[in-house]
Known about the structure:
By secondary structure, chain A is mostly helical. Chain A folds into two domains: 7-67, Arc Repressor Mutant, subunit A, CATH 1.10.10; 73-207, Tetracycline Repressor, domain 2. The first copy, chain A, is built from nine helices and no strands.
Amino acid sequence: MASNPPAHLKPRKKPRQARATVTVDAIFEATIQVLLADGPQRLTTTRVAERAGVSVGTMYQYFPHKHALFYALNEHYLDVLAQKVESACQAQHGASINRMIDVLVTTYWNAKTERPEVTRALYRSVVELDNEPLIKEFARRLDAATAAMFASASDAVFADLPTVNLTLLTSIFGTVRGVFERNLPDPEASAVHRHLVLMCIAYLEAVKLPPRRAGGYDPAPRASSH
Amino acid sequence: MASNPPAHLKPRKKPRQARATVTVDAIFEATIQVLLADGPQRLTTTRVAERAGVSVGTMYQYFPHKHALFYALNEHYLDVLAQKVESACQAQHGASINRMIDVLVTTYWNAKTERPEVTRALYRSVVELDNEPLIKEFARRLDAATAAMFASASDAVFADLPTVNLTLLTSIFGTVRGVFERNLPDPEASAVHRHLVLMCIAYLEAVKLPPRRAGGYDPAPRASSH
DNA sequence: CCTCAAACTGAAGCATCCTTCATATCTTGA
DNA sequence: TCAAGATATGAAGGATGCTTCAGTTTGAGG
């Protein structure tokens, strides 16, 4: 369901027997474990294999090289994340922009916060080679999902939805990332979460086109026009 | 002028003769060059030394190991960046919040955009070991600078300035980073820049305390109260 | 001009790490 | 039960990188 991996880092083969499936799952899990325990620098084929309880050779039956493993891991993570956001957006079609923003931010936030260590580890690992296609595809999917949602808002229409949408996503993703990067403790992190919602709502209020009656912000605020 | 580097990655010695200064500068420049040309993965002591036109041994006279070099590079970069923002903030004391936001965002944005390749390379390199203290110190400095600025605003007072300030900085930094990460082409990047300013202004409008007279947003918008 | 500390050199030691492949074991299906 | 394909093993080859140090060159001060 995700994108098409560049040829050079496609998995070598898919598991056909039950034990092989177990093995591959163990390898993924081990990769995360090693990432958590030792950091991206010490993510070593040997270490992953050891932790997964298999031999190095086994890994190379499924992944042509280390980067392919890494790529597959991130692909899976981003795919799950994108699905969560997509279905959350879907569910809010026709709602108010306030609710949309709240759901969007909170869904993304919770998904990232569910396993903070994993999130942090992956953020730090995204540096590795060639996952730019992954990020692009992820961004494209969410762009589409949120744009469709906002276009369906019951209480607002936007002149330049693409830009508004892009700005929103960029700032939400960036803010969440910043919270992880600075390792903000919980009272502050929650406060930022709340204020991020406020910020986005205020932004949408400011850029939405005035509804049919009752001017939005500039001309004659709440007197019937003229 | 920056923080105190952890002992294990302090420079070994400072240049005492002119040629040594030249050497150290060349090493820094070469580090950036290699980062740009080959990426953080291929940043190798040998490669840096070669590009700098010195031998590996020379590098080790000044830096106890690779990470120390890296650390010093980032330290310098963040220091310059922090200074720019600090002085920009200083200059806006007493101004309106709109102007403050505009100056803050634009200053940061321009500083990052000045040499986009370098920015991108450094963003990608910040993964390396132990520069968390650097980030913390950088955040602390800017936090202080912008908080002081906003506290002096001529047209607004905030109930919870620390949170407002933290949210602003986190989202601004994060958004800019996101623009680089997604490698947004210029029309879109500029649009996000503009909208980021709008967003921050709308946010501050929404959270500022109502001025002495003429209620802010909730009660009786522009009729003399009561 | 001379001396000594500062600066520089770069081959080599040491430590990892990635990846392969010949071999062994397991599972399935007939 | 047995053959054949699937899966697993792990020692070893090959590559690269970090760091040291014994020795050389350079520059500053007397």
